[in-house]
Amino acid sequence: MAKSGSTFLALLTGAAIGAGLGMLYAPESGEETRRKLGENARRTQDDLNKRYRETSSNLSTRAKKAKSDFELRLEETLSSASYKADEILSSLESKLEELRKQNSKFQKDRSEGNGSKSTASASDTGKGKKGAGATDNAVG
């Protein structure tokens, strides 16, 4: 882009210097000099218009390519992200199922443990009463 700008500036500078020197050293009449200056100005304008169209077309092509590349990369990124999200969800679902099984086992073990502890504590309480009653009888 900077190269195009410096080329354009060099072109304008060259045209201005050339026109000025042409007028100073022209052996032709004023009318002939004006005609040549007019032709030179038209050629310069045509050249500038051509360069403008080329630059505009070039920029437009680059913009379209950049847009296309961006859309392709975006699609690839979204596809990859979607795939990874599916993997994560699958992994989380399997972990959740594993935790549910562990919780179920824990609840089952806990309820079995409470049932045997309740039975054991009731029998211990009964033994304690019998033992205390026997002691009371022996004393009394």
UniProtKB/TrEMBL annotation:
Pfam families, alphabetized: YtxH
Region (Disordered): 30-67, 100-140
Coiled coil: none
Family matches, as Gene3D superfamilies: Apolipoprotein
Transmembrane portions of the chain: 6-26
Keyword terms, alphabetized: Membrane, Transmembrane, Transmembrane helix
Residue ranges, compositional bias (Basic and acidic residues): 31-54, 100-112
Name the record gives this protein: YtxH domain-containing protein
Organism this protein belongs to: Salinimicrobium oceani
Lineage: Bacteria, Pseudomonadati, Bacteroidota, Flavobacteriia, Flavobacteriales
